[in-house]
Predict the structure.
Amino acid sequence: MNKTINNRAWFLVIPVVALVAFNALIPLMTVVNYSVQETFGNNEFFWSGVTWFEQVLRDDRFHGALGRQLFFTGTILLIEVPLGIAIALTMPKKGPWVSVCLVLMALPLLIPWNVVGAMWNIMALPDIGLLGHTLNELGIDYNYTRQPVSAWVTLIAMDVWHWTSLVVLLSYAGLVSIPEAYFQAAKIDGAKSWAVFRYIQLPKMKRVLTIAILLRFMDSFMIYTEPSVLTGGGPGNSTTLLSIDLVKTALGQFDLGPAAATSLVYFLIVLLVSWVFYTLMMRNEES
Amino acid sequence: MAKVTLENLAHTYFNRADGAAEWAVKRVNLEWADGGAFALLGPSGCGKTTLLNIMSGLVHPTHGRILFGERDVTGLSPEERNIAQVFQFPVVYDTMSVYDNIAFPLRNRGMAESEIATRVAEIAELTELTPMLKQRAAGLTADGKQKISLARGLVRPDVNLVMFDEPLTVIDPHLKWVLRSKLRELHQRVGTTMIYVTHDQTEALTFADQVVVMNAGEVVQIGTPVELFERPQHTFVGHFIGSPGMNVLPTEIDNGKAVFAGLPVEVANPLSGSADGKLELGVRPEFVSFGTDGIPATITSVADAGRYRIVDTQASGHRIKLLVDEGEAIPAQDTYLRFDPGQTRLYRDGWLATEGVAR
């Protein structure tokens, strides 16, 4: 076989290699570098192999943070996805109210994350905050700075308020793209509204819902700013999610080795779950 | 099953219906006989889909009534009318199997599963879907999906009417013919009234016993394919049906005779009364021939269309086409044209000028 070998073609991929290197590989490799060494002052490094990884994976603190993270992500997905679909279903499909609804829905998404945290922090203050004060006036014992349950409720309410819109907008986009003929056919077939939802709207929304769930999973799994501003991980460690825990280790205690190992494990979890989820959804699509 | 009557039907999609141009359907009176195979033919935007949706109940007409038999169904929902409709783009429930798709309308009506099984088997046999019953509907080709749509319609007992809205649009050309003859055969077997909406004259003329031609929201002619061809009621029908379409030429009445290019022309429907309105002569290219005298014309082009040739001529500034059979000689550039008197007709304001006969 006479194959022309033209090595100059490799030059063409240099821009992409450079981009990926600066964008992902080099920063990631510095983290890998820290994760396998013991670091001392004066830039002294000692090889430590997988010690940090073993330590992190056995660490109760990491387990706790991971558990809280999974609980948080699971809860907000369970609330935001059905709620988002429900709101999208009630939105008008045409007419002047469409733009009004879309703008209203987009508003929370436009607010900077730390502002959202600060807003809810102030609003939920038990003594002067609108929400906190009202709840206490109603006889509900609510204090997010002291009670873990209150803190969790506030945290989840804040995320639902901030991000349900994303699910709504994506679902809505999926809904309006369904050709009218499907609804007409369903009418002729005598389908009730539940059947229309179950057999037409939901299947047609599958693609956008996959994206919505994937985005919400990744974002909520990596969430930092809002809970950090709202509760700072407290009371105690009760709302310390993975990212907050990581920042505490890395910047609070300056334990670079364990922090780097935690980062990599964290990254691999996100990658793994996203990959599994995506593969499952796509396989389902093909069959 | 029953005959379907449309009474003074009109529809507009706009609320302020003062201008005539805004009517999607204007004053349609029609009767679809029970068990017939009909085609509703017209160009895009002529209102045929609106008319279809009014019959199926998806659109509520602005004016008029729809009767199934003697029963007024104007206010009834599509489900209550018990009709079936096959849409331009195949509508199947993607997540269901072919079987579940066909069973869906029956399940919605709460039929017993055992009864559903027999019905579905019967209809699947009829539509040749039996081998695919267990497959997922999403995996079928476009023609398979259209068959599912059709089967979903036919599976219900006592369907009043089956309507097709340009059902072959997304079908591969070589399958169009197969599916069309299949529909024809199916009509003969089930005997349900079928209405086939299309802008394709071949589809309409091969499917239907009776063709309803629509233009700009109005029914311009109802007739068998032969009637539409031989006796167009409107110049539009002459244009639209036949390939190439009818020659339409301006004319005047002089001494009770139609005149074209200064010469009198014999027509099948001579006008005796007034000669108001815009008068035109209509003659199909099939009924124009070359002669040694008659209307002087110049040949501008000849196109070979297989068994015949289409000859383009100019006569006193107007384009006249004629068909010449294979093997027949075509004269030199300057020649004379003859119109078959039995097939040349006079039209007034577009409509066939026949006194005393309501259009």
